[in-house]
Amino acid sequence: MTETGKIRIAKDKAELVKSLTISGGKTGAFQTYADVVVFAATLGAKHKKRVPLEGVSKKEPGPIRIEQFISMGYDVVIKLLAVVETQDVEILSPTEEELEKQRHQIFEEYANGGLEIIQNEVLGAVDYLERILLLLSYERTSKDRTDGEFDLSRFLP
Question: InterPro entries, per this entry (predicted)?
C-alpha cells in the first residue's frame, strides 16, 4: 500500500523516469520527476491504462513527496483522477488518511500505465524528447479525441 505523503514510482520504470528528465547535463523532455509522473498519469488516464505497481523504486528516483506536487499545482490532477475513477467526491476528504492513500494509489497506477505507453513509444529511440513530442503531436491531431477531453498538448513547448 502507498506511503502517506509520497508518490511512488514502479521499480521497473525508474530508469525511464530518470532518462526523461533534465539532469547531469543531459537534455530531457521534463524538468522534474513530478513532471514526468503527472504527464504519465494523464496519459494513462486518457488511455484508461491503470497498472498496479509490482515493485517500488527505492533509489533514484525514490518516492516523491506530495508537497512537490502541491507546490507545482499538480495535486489537482491527483484529486481529479481519484474522483473520476471512484465517481465519489468523498475521496477528496482531507482528514481521512485511507482516502488519501487511495487517491495516491489511483494516481500511481495511472502513472505506471502511462509510463508503459511511453516506454513502448521510446523503445529503440536515441532521442526521447523527439519521441515525446511526436506522441504529443499525434495526441493533439488524433481523430478519436472528443471535445472536453484533457488536452495533453499543453505539455508541448
Answer: DNA_S_mod_dnd_assoc_4 (IPR023983)
* Distance from the Cα of residue 24 to its chain's centroid: 22
* DSSP one-letter code for 31: S
For the entire predicted model, the pTM comes to: 0.83
pLDDT, tens digit, for every residue of 60-98? Answer: 888 999 999 999 999 999 999 999 999 999 999 988 999
| Residue 1 in this model has a pLDDT that exceeds 80 | no
Q: Report the distance separating Cα 112 and Cα 45, nearest Å.
A: 10
CA–CA separation, 115 and 121 (whole Å): 10
Q: Which helix (H) or strand (E) holds 6?
A: strand 6-7
Closest residue by Cα to residue 20 from 139, 103, 135: 135
- Residues 6 or more apart from 110 whose CB is under 8 A from it? 40, 41, 42, 44, 45, 49, 50, 81
Read off φ and ψ for residue 101, nearest 5 degrees: -60, -40
Contact by Cβ (8 Å): 7, 50: no
Cell numbers at 104, concatenated? 495516491
Q: Is the pLDDT of residue 127 over 80?
A: no
- Are the C-beta atoms of 61 and 20 separated by less than 8 Å? no
